[in-house]
Amino acid sequence: MTTHYQTRYAASPQDVKNYDTNRLRDEFLISNVMEDDAINLVYSHYDRFITGGVVPVKNELKLESIDPLKANYFLERRELGIINVGGKGTVSVNGIDYQLDYKEALYIGRENKDVIFSSEDATKPAKFYLNSTPAHKTFPTKKIGREDAEVVELGALETANARTIRKLIVNSVVETCQVQMGMTELKTGSVWNTMPAHVHDRRMEVYFYFEVPEDQAVCHFMGEPEETRHIWMANNQAVISPPWSIHSGSGTSNYIFIWGMAGENLDYGDMDHCNINELK
């Protein structure tokens, strides 16, 4: 069996206040995203968001439905966003091939039955990072190259948060029902992401950290602004962020992360900011 999945349930912020380190990690950390010749998925009850990784090495891998979907095929009632964080690879959608290089993205609309992943070079396999959400309408499949992204520069070296945001799968670049994805790259000498922090009660979010050096780590901060918690994370790990939670991080070196969102609206700027000196 090449497809493995877990189910994660939603948690009240009042309950999370009582979690110890292990419980916090069990509920929100997705530690095993990328595995050779396997598809790993986590089905979250926050907005029915699915996070996953696909690493085809020796074999092609087909995206199959999982039991929580109660569907004949994975995208029967869903849409899918993909970003490649490995070597060159191909995603075949109903027989049409889309080649994805490093940091390139693909949006696949609802009702596409056959989605197959492959790598160009088994010694440098593609690593496809997936986000999937329920969809009410079918939009066309579209590849988004790095040159197609909306680019925003934020932060400053003086505050250790100079970063480049690339909006890849957002409604100003490609039509979607609710899934949104993009990439934030910290510049050399900067370590803080999403600082000042914010929450958005209309949407949940998942962060996937990559390009974290082997001997380094990222401390991801979550929780209500007045009572935060933290999770230490390694390379190629993801973390679920509930709508009531901040989602921020600081690394022991610079790194890159992919943000994925789903929820009530597609307004990227819909957020409630938290003053840094009010965080607790």
From TrEMBL:
InterPro entries on file: KduI (IPR007045), KduI/IolB_isomerase (IPR021120), KduI_N (IPR027449), RmlC-like_jellyroll (IPR014710), RmlC_Cupin_sf (IPR011051)
Short name of one Pfam family: KduI
SUPFAM superfamilies linked to this entry: RmlC-like cupins (SSF51182)
Gene3D superfamilies the UniProt entry points to: Jelly Rolls, pectin degrading enzyme 5-keto 4- deoxyuronate isomerase, domain 1
Single GO term (MF): zinc ion binding
Binding site for Zn(2+): H198, H200, E205, H247
Leading EC class: isomerase
Pathways involved: Glycan metabolism; pectin degradation; 2-dehydro-3-deoxy-D-gluconate from pectin: step 4/5
Function noted in UniProt: Catalyzes the isomerization of 5-dehydro-4-deoxy-D-glucuronate to 3-deoxy-D-glycero-2,5-hexodiulosonate.
Family: Belongs to the KduI family.
Protein name: 4-deoxy-L-threo-5-hexosulose-uronate ketol-isomerase
Taxonomic lineage: Bacteria, Pseudomonadati, Bacteroidota, Flavobacteriia, Flavobacteriales
